[in-house]
Amino acid sequence: MPPRLLPPSCRTVFMFCLAACRVMDTAHGRILGNNVALIYDDGLDLVRPSSHIELWMTNVLDDARHMRCPSSISFAMFRMSSKLDAITDIVQHERAGGRMLFDGMVLAVTQCRVADVLEPILSSTTPRLRLDFIACPSEAAGLEIERLELYRLNEASRDSCGMYAFHKWLEHRICSWSMEATTRRLLLDNEAPFKQEIYIHSFHYASFVGFQTTISWFSLFDLFMERSVTRELQDCSNLDDLQWIRSMRPIRLDVADSARMQQRKGNMLRFASLERPPFVIFERHSDGTIRGFKGYCYEIIHALQKIYNFTYEVDQPKDNTYGTVMPNGSWNGMIRMIKEQVIDIGVGPFSVTYSRSKAVDFTVPFYEEPTGILIPPPAEDNRLLACTKPFRLEVWLSLLLCVTTLPIVLWKDLQLVLKTYQKAASTSNENSKSEEENHFQEKCPSLAKQYFFVLGVLIGQSGQKLPSSGFSPRLLGAFWCLSAVVFASAYVGILVGFLSIPRLSPIISSLEELPGSKLEWGVQRGTALETLFTEATTGVYKTIGDGLLRQPTALVDVNADGIQRVTNGSYAFIKEKSYLEFAVEEDYARSGSCRLSMARQEFFKVNFAFALPTASPLKTLLDKKILQLMETGIGEYWKKIHWPRSNRKCDDVKGSSAPKSLGLTDLQGAFLILAIGSATSSLIFVAEGLVKKRTNEGQETSPLSRCRPHEWMHT
Question: Per DSSP, what are the bridge partners of residue 363?
């Protein structure tokens, strides 16, 4: 009966027996820790690893020593050329009834014939695993040893899946001796993902709690997985059975390029970098030569340097680019240097894109960055037409309609009212009839007077009187006066605020507004942004990309050229936000004025990572430590060090909130209206003079000349 099906009381007794057996086994001299023998042949060198597979094994063993087993795992290294006799002595000692010195054995060989010789002499009482780096005939594998067929995977899958499967084997074969793990499974009554087979072993005499006894005990469920370690490896690599059988990828055992470089120069790595504040900053001597490196990226490098104890040298790409695909399919910039393994690591804020990921490997991302647009600073609105700014176009059109039609309505209304009075007076006598007609002619208003009344009320001119005849014209005039007060007050209030508190408007606010503006735009050559726009097929990205292709000068070789074009005006430079913030603050510190600004809307967030050659042995080391560094939150501390301290003076596009004294430029619209009115009145005066002159040419004398002096004076 499996232990998990025992009654609770029996299960408790069973657990107690397991603990007693474990303690007595320790009293006989067995070390409580988990000891594993690692046996390898002359094709591998784990003391001074150089090839990719040797570096991989070193990393796997280093991580295995830190597994969270109840007791630590230690590895005893045996190289066959020097310690074959020691291996044989250990096995013979165990077969002769001596205590077991190892909880498991791992065999790593690069030659099939070595496995044929070594497997028969290995102990059959402990878990055994064979790491297959080459495809050997099935008869060389034996029947009882488990196999990890690493030769069926490519290097990328082997780095992750091989480590996973090896750790899985250690967990189920070696760590299963832990009482805590077994107790946890018994108490929780979980279904274990492996078969539980109970073996009866004879137990030696031992002293336990003051008495001596001989017992037979259940070992800690020799844990055999339902699925073999090979199946775990196959599932992790996402290969079906047919692909798994056909997969044959020979493992290179020669020295890796990075290892050759380390053997030649010691622990030195070759980097490539471009200056890109605040991630990469070059420290220079007075003569301009580089003396050091700092920035966010090199904070990571210096932290790793303390862990792995390496030195480095830094090269710069000749074309000053990160790397893009050329028309012939090759790469330029630092990506080319990485592909050709001229360097070991590309240190800088490399944007992780799909096209780049097919050419090189990337570490885990260490920063996420949006893209921004650097534009000229926001400018004050034109004050020449400031008098039209308080109202929008639809309000002005509505007022124009009212001013045009209301006088006509008043005029017609007054005419109807007076005609009504005239008909009522027609029933009177003939003498009074002529007097009423004269009175009607005097009271009948002209259309011009109604226009003067409506405009006078609107602009607040005093002396305007409501119509004296009829109730409806006076009521309409009264409501117009009330509306005119609202219009005039709103206009004056908004105009005063507009003139005294200027409004600064950005040239554009988003990428979508850029094609419709008067600005030209550009990006740095050889960056991910160039690829993003030029390879786009739809949307605003394609529009921006077409603009880049139409103008050869739109792509700049260095970022400083793009910044300078923006300061010259009518240009927008597209770049990562952190660099643009750095450029704005640096320009303000140098010039003392806000000559640069940024569009409000951000776009195209991208992850930054270091670039590595494909299947680089450094990737696993870098990924692990970079993740640990980022999880500590030290990245925020580095940002405070290297990001510019913004004074916020160039960020606000709304302008100052305090009123200011008005100058001539603020009131130029009023002077413009006065000038237009004066010019118009002068033209009308000249026109009246000409018309009057032509009228008087046909008369011999002026009417005033026929008047007597005293009559002219009284006229």
Answer: none
